[in-house]
Amino acid sequence: MNLSTKSRYGLRALTNLLDQDCCCSIKQISKKEHISSDYLEKIFAKLKKAGLLKVERGACGGYSLSRDPKKITLGEVINALEKPEFICPDFCDCQSKSVWQKIQSGFSHVLNSITLDQLAVSKNKSVYLDYAASTPVDPEVLNTMLPYFDFSFCGNTMSLHQMGSVASQVVESCRQSFANILKVQSSEIIFTGSATESNNTVLKGIAFANKNKGKHIIISSIEHDCVLNSAKWLETQGFEISQISVDKFGLLNLDELKKTIRPDTILVSIIHGNNEIGTIQDLASIGQICHDRGVYFHTDASQSFTKTDIDLSKLNVDLLTASSHKIYGPKGAALLYIKTGTKITPLLHGGGHEFGLRSSTVNLPAVVGFTKAAEIAIKNFDQENKKLCELRDYLIKNILKSISDSHLNGHPTKRLSNNINISFTRVEGESLLLELDFYGIAVSTGSACSSASLELSHVLLAIGLKPEQSHGSLRFSLGRFTTKSEVDYLLKVLPQVVNKFRQISPFKS
Amino acid sequence: MYTQKVLEHFRNPHNFGSMENPTAVGQVGNLACGDVMKLYLKIDKNKKGEDYIQDIKFETLGCAAAIATSSIVTDLAKNKTLTEALKIKNEDIIKALDDLPAVKIHCSLLAADALDEAIYEFYQKTNQPISPELEKLHHRITVCQTRLNH
Fold it and tell me: Which of A232, A239, A326, A474 shows the smallest number of beta carbons within 10 Å?
């Protein structure tokens, strides 16, 4: 038996109406599914006649399902569009007739037992749960940026003419905006091209400017690669690096930090909200320890900025990194807060932009976008983080409940509002990631197999995971545009995906 | 980064699952590295009286490439005589998958090793002569394994 084009197209078109309260015009569906609108019109007329569709008039009008998709079977849809026939026609009275009849009733039974809502899983959905990697630009941010590509803002902020000074004024107002958010002086903020650049500037800039005092730098064992690899490079330049361990939740060992700081220590750099496991460090305590010992303290707040309250007027933080593309701003913009009086050498030498600390023509539209993104995030701080925390905890609870041998990595409460990191034993992360990708779900993994170097995540090893546990870890990171129904879709798909690979694995339990 | 062929075998692997009363089993890789492959063989005599792989199954814990190489090696080895099966090299596996990324070549080695190990076990169990090459392969695989496990 073959499904006719009518039935195939009919089912495909109906999958567009599965979301509740969805009302689509023929034109919209025709465009999306590449089916001619005349043909769709004929199909929909039949479905409407069979009572499966209803029409709504008006500006937002179009077709919608007349009943809950859970209560419409594939059999009903197909019967409305065609009469499925089997090879043996009615007039035939051969001996195999009863067999054909059985097949026919078997098919009907199958088709009547599948409901429309079940098509939702196989439908090509796209669910982005990798906001910690990068975020889409908020439409409001984009609109704010667009005029700054215009001729009137083309000037170089260093130029003396009118257009240069207009551009310069815009940058200064952006700087002031960040100063207000972080509660610091505007002269303490410089704009850079990325968080990686900010972190490189701190490690290398502090190292070379303070080498007369000492050559010892302290980082944690769970830093982002840009801090870790900058530190490793500094080792080749004669600097000495110490890594402070973390506990099983990823919290820094403060006693070890106190013991490790020496008279020749020049910098302590600790990530604020960890990018992999989401654990948030206690900036006040770490800052106090460094301040008491006269050592500069830098924190990489790329993940935590606008997700936790950071009031630098109350914290002993000397340097802080924040990034635009993690907070719905454009890529290619970041900032570095440098407390007045901090001795630092620039990474980039040139025309002396950004108080001589970062030569490069300022990327004006990106800085404007970054600023707008931060303003929006701060304005909606409470509401947005509350929503994220609720979705996060809902997801954690339900994954742990529905999938055996799964456990949460990172701290249960001191964690980023959007981060979920879970290990599944007896499966491998890259397989899970790719299989989820087939379902349209984008996540990230700490598995070695997915990294170019084939090295295991140093963060997961640092919190004491055995290699076989860290291979099967996934990070889900939520964001502004994540909905409860997206999270539910993941919860529906994930158990079967994990189960699939556990079936293939030689280790059953 | 993966070819269509790899993705096909990854999504719908052939011949997976365990086997009841296998004639021989070959297991390679280790948990710490994240890849473990286990091949089950059912070996019988063909009409000419040669030993051949009548059935083959795999169980694998690993990345997409590990699952795809396991799946394709079962296809390549099925119905082959043991002499033919021993000629399957990792290059053949890569070719059958239309290529593998450079960092995943070791997965094809693992699949070839698992097959060799299973055949080695069969020869040993049935007291058949083992060629010096197979002996050498077996030695390399076990040394590698022990080193990884410690």
Answer: A232
Catalytic residue list contains A449: yes
- Cβ distance A426 to B59 less than 8 Å, yes or no, reads no
Q: Do B34 and A449 touch (CB under 8 A)?
A: yes
pTM: 0.80
Give residue-wise pLDDT tens across range B115-141: 999 999 999 999 999 999 999 999 988
**Residue B144 annotated as catalytic:** no
**Can you tell me whether residue A265 is helix, strand or coil?**
strand
Does residue B111 contact residue B90 with C-beta atoms inside 8 Å? yes
Yes or no, beta carbons of A431 and B63 under 8 Å apart: yes
Which of B39, B88, B107, B119 is flagged as catalytic? B107
Q: Which of B34, B65, B103 lies closest to A447 in CB terms?
A: B34
Average pLDDT, integer, range A313-328: 98
Share of chain A above pLDDT 90, in %: 69
Nearest CB neighbour to B63, from listed A430, A467, A506:
A430
Nearest-Cα residue of chain B relative to residue A450: B63
pLDDT tens string A485-497: 999 999 999 999 9
Q: What would the 3-class secondary structure string for chain B be? A: CCCHHHHHHHHCCCCECCCCCCCEEEEEEEHHHCEEEEEEEEEEECCCCCEEEEEEEEEEECCHHHHHHHHHHHHHHCCCEHHHHCCCCHHHHHHHCCCCCHHHHHHHHHHHHHHHHHHHHHHHHCCCCCCHHHHHHHHHHHHHHHHHHC
Strands of the sheet with B35-45, listed across from one edge: B24-30, B35-45, B51-61
Q: So what's the pLDDT on residue B150? A: 46
3-state secondary structure of A266: strand
Strand partners, A441: A127
> Nearest 5°: CA angle at B63, between B62 and B69?
85
- Mode of pairing for the β-strands spanning A240-244 and A216-220: parallel
